[in-house]
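Hi U.,

Before I forget, here's the chain from the pilot set. I'm dumping it here mostly so it's searchable later in email.
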Amino acid sequence: MESMPLVQKQEHVGVIRLFGLSAYFFATGLLLSTLALVTLALEARHLAPSHATLALPGLLSIAGVSQLACPLAGALSDRHRSKYGRRRPFIFWGTAVLSLSLATQWAARAGVFGESLALAIYGLAFFAAMVSLNFAYTAATSLVPDLVPPEQTGVANGVATLAQVAGSFFGFLFYFVVDDLDALYGLYVSSVLLASAATITAATGLERRKRLARAGADVLDNGDFTDRLRRRRGSWGGAAPGHKGGGASFIDTTTSTTATSTTSTPSSTTTTTTT
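Structure:
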């Protein structure tokens, strides 16, 4: 009788891990809201004072075009296979490129590349930042259906939304309190690095737990261990070619051989004594 395949049920995910998975949404909420409403407007006026009305729509257009990277990021991460999972490499490398691009944007506004190249380099760095952010963000969004059981999907999405709103609020509060655009760039880089570390750590623990649960389900699904061992012992004691009536187990054959040897020993001794 074949064993029925077992249905693997995902374990409940704790609140702390749900917030860990949603940490990246805090950073994206902080970054995108303040970029669109504060940073880009100030940078357009700073980098192109005589053409600020054209520079700002140009930067916003770059942000819009970069959204086209999301379907590609989703398709690539769906097909990706590595020992680090499907999503974590995209979050890691996306965050690395994003941090480098944000640092380049800050250097451009600080005049490191000169006034003539400042706006062009800032625009290229901004495009790289938005594309890498969309790659990391898409992978982070996919962690919920991958690692959270269906009955907790609503709660997980609610926690992610809460984290994004909290990040947006904190970003505006930070700028209006500090009133320093250079400090805001520092907040951008530190927030995405810390948030990616929290999200990757939470995803690593949940993926390890999921692998262990899958391995245990596979062992149970292969049938009862005792039945498989009994069948294997029967195959060890199969009949030899040309021998009829085989089928006794290996242990039974050994026991019968030992009994025969023990019985024959007294007979031999008795015959010798009579002679």
